[in-house]
Protein: HAD family hydrolase
Organism: Dorea formicigenerans
Amino acid sequence: MALRKKHEVLEEPQDYEIERRETPRYNPDPEAGLSAAQVEQHRDDGWRNVSVAPPAQTTKEIIRENVCTYFNLIFLVLAILLCLVGSFRDLTFLPVIIFNTLIGIVQEIRAKNVLEKLNMLNAPHASVVRDGKKSLVDSEELVLDDIVIFKAGNQICADAIVVSGEVRVNESLLTGESDEITKAPGAELMSGSFVVAGECRARLDKVGVDSYISKLTLEAKAMKKGEQSEMIRSLDKLVKFVGIALIPIGITLFVQGFFFNDQSFRNSIVSMVAAVLGMIPEGLYLLASVALAVSSMRLAHKKVLLHDMKSIETLARVNVLCVDKTGTITENSMSVKDMIPTKEYDAEKMPELNGLLSDFVGTMSSDNSTMEALKDYFKKKTEQSASKVVPFTSVTKYSGVMFGEKSYVIGAPEFVLREDYDTYKPDISEYARKGYRVLVFGSYDAALDGGKLTGKVLPMAYVLLANPIRKEAPETFAYFAEQGVEVKVISGDNPLTVSEVAKEAGIVNAEEYVDATTLQTDEDIANAVAKYTVFGRVTPGQKRQFVQALKDQGKTVAMTGDGVNDVLALKDADCSVAMASGSDAACQAAQVVLLESNFACMPSVVLEGRRVVNNIQRSASLFLVKNIFSFLLSLFSVVFMMSYPLQPSQISLISMFTIGIPGFFLAFQPNKDVIKGHFLTNVVLKALPAGLTDVLAVAAMAVFGQTFGLGETDISTAGTMLLAIVGFMILFKICEPFNWLRGCVWVGSVIGLLGCSIFLPKLFAITGMSTKCIMLFVVFSIATEPLFRYLTKLVSGVRKLHMKIHKKPVEEF
C-alpha cells in the first residue's frame, strides 16, 4: 500500500491518498495462514498495513522550517533596505543569522537520523502465521487476511476477526471505557485496543487506512504536534509579541527621523534598522530548539527514546514519580521460591498437588511473568484435559481451570479467599513480610464462569514467588530522595509485600502503605495519595485515579510502567516512561521509552532535562537584556522625538560578544539545579535589571551628549561601550559559579569585543571619542554598577512582596 502526500504539511487525515487495486479475499486455515503467493498478491495490490501516521520531517522540511521563518524574512527586508541606501557595513548581522540557521539545520538533521534509527529498533511487531509457520514481522509488513497471534500485552495493529482462541480486550483507548471485553471466535478486534488476557488467532479484516484506529491516529498525532513544553510556549509568546511590536515601532522611528528630525533617508533607514535588530531575539528560539535536539541525541546514545522532546522538560520538573514494583524496583524475571501446603491440606499429598498445579499451569498461555515462573517450576504433568480455562486479568486477579467437573483457581489471596481471608491472613502476612509475593491455590466449589468468584474456595497451598531487587535501585531512589522527588509505589501485589520490597530498595517512607481495595471514593484516594507511599492491590482504573488525584494537588507527575494495566495511567501522567521489554501498548502510550529497560538511567534523563532547561533559561536572560533595552529605548526615542542613538553594526558587535557566543557555550554546560518557577517569569526577572540599566545609561548619555553638543558618532560609540559594560556585568552574574569553561567564555568574550573594537573599528562603527564624550562616558560607566545593583535589589524586593501577598514561597520563581 503506497501513501502519497498531496501537500507538504499534514493538516487533515484526507491529505493522504491510497493507491491500490481490487484484490481477492482469503479465509485461510488458522493453523496455516496465508501462503507466500497470497501475501505477495495482497502486497502487489497495495493491501499492506502501512501506518497512516504523519511521517517524520524530511531533510528538505527541516531546511525549509529553519530558513523560511518570520524573523529571517524581517532580516532579509532589513538587509535589502541597507543595501538600497548603500550601508553595507551595517550588514554585519547577516553572517551571525546564517551561521545560527546552519547550526539549527545540522543539529536537527543529526537528531532526526539518530531518532529514526531508534524508532526502527522500537517499531511494533506482530506474530504472524504464514505457510504453517510462525514468524515475527514488523506490523507494517502485515497484509489483508493475515492470521496474527494476539496475546496479553499486544496492541491490536489492524481490525481483525477472531478465528480461534479467546482473549479479553481493553478498548479504553478507543471508547474511554476501561471494562474488559471477552472476544470469542467470530468477534471483532478493534485496532488500537489491547489484549489483557488470553491468546487467540485472528484474521486481519481491515488494514492500514481502512482500520478504525487510522483516523484517530492522525488526529492524535496532529494534537501531539501542537503540544509544547512550558519553555517553548513561553518563547512562542515572546517571539509573537516582538514580531507584532517591531513593525509599528520601526515604521514610527523611520517616519519620525525622516520627516520630523530632518535625518537623511539613509540615516533614517540605518537608525530604524538598528532599533529593530535590537528587538529581535534572533538566536533564542534557535538555541532552544538546538539544545533540545542535542539532548535528544545524548539520551539516544544512552538508549532512551523520546517520542516527543517536550518530555525532557516535563520530566525535569517532576516532583512525584509513580513506579511499579516489578520491572522497576525489582528485576522483570520472577521465580517460584516454594510451595507450602495449607493447614487443611495433607502434606503427604504434595506430589499429587504438584502434579495438579503442573496440569493447571500447562493449560495457561505464558502471557505474563507470573505464569512463566509457575510454568518453569511446575513441570510434572499428569496430562488432565481442561474443560474450561479462565485466564488471569488485572481486574479479577485470578486464573481458573476446570478439569471435568472440578474447578481450581490460583490468584491473589484477598481476591480468591474473600470473606475467608482473615482466617489465613496471619500465615500470608508472615510470608509477605519476608518480601514474598503470595498466591493461593485452591479448589472452587462452583463452575467457573469467567467473572468474579461467587462460590467458596478451599485453599490447598501457598505459592511463594519473588523478584530480585535491581542492584542499582537503592542508588537510583536515593538520588530522587536527594532531589526532593516523592516516589509512590503503585502495585497490584499485596501492600505488605510491596512495602518490604520498597524498604529494601531504600524508598523513603516505604513503611507507609495502604490496601487500595479499601479506597472507595475520590476523597479516599485524594487523602491516600497525600499520606501513603506504597499502594497495593491497585486496579488499572485506580492507577489512573491516583495520577489524576496527584495532579489535582498541584503535583507534576511522572508514571513509569511496562504492562498493559499501566496504559491508562501513562496516558494521563504529565510525563510517561515505559520499559521497552514491556507491552507494545505501554511503549506506544509512553513519551519516554527506556530501550534497555533499565530504570537506573532515569536520573540521567532528569539531569539532562535540568541541564537543558536551566541553561536555556540562563542564556535566554542574555538575549532578553538586549530586547528589553532596544524596545524601551525605541519607545524613549519616539516619545522624546530623538533619533535612535545606535547603529546596526554596533548592535551586532554587542549581540555577538555579550549574547550569542557566550549564550551558545553556556547552553551546553552541566547544570543539576532543580527547576523552579515559570520559564518566562524567571527569564524576564533576571534580564530586567540589566535591560533597565542599559536603557537608563544610554538614554542619559544621549540626552547629556546632545546637551553638551556631542556628535552622533561620539554618542553612538559611547552608548555601545556602555552596553558592553552592562552586558559583561550580567554575563559575569550569569556565569557564576565560575568553572574553567565559564571563565574562558567570559574572558574570551571581553577580549573578542575589545579586539574587534581596536582592529575592526570601521566595520563596527567604533570611532574615537572626544574629550567631552570620554568624560561623560567615564561618569556613566562608574554609575552603571551601582545602578545595576540597586535595580536588581528593587526587582527582587518587588518579587518577594508579590509572593508574600499571594502567599507563595519565593522559591517558586
Observations:
- The first strand starts at residue 2 and ends at 5.
- Residues 1-16, 220-227 have pLDDT under 50 and may be disordered.
- DSSP finds 26 helices and 23 strands in the chain.
- The radius of gyration is 33 Å.
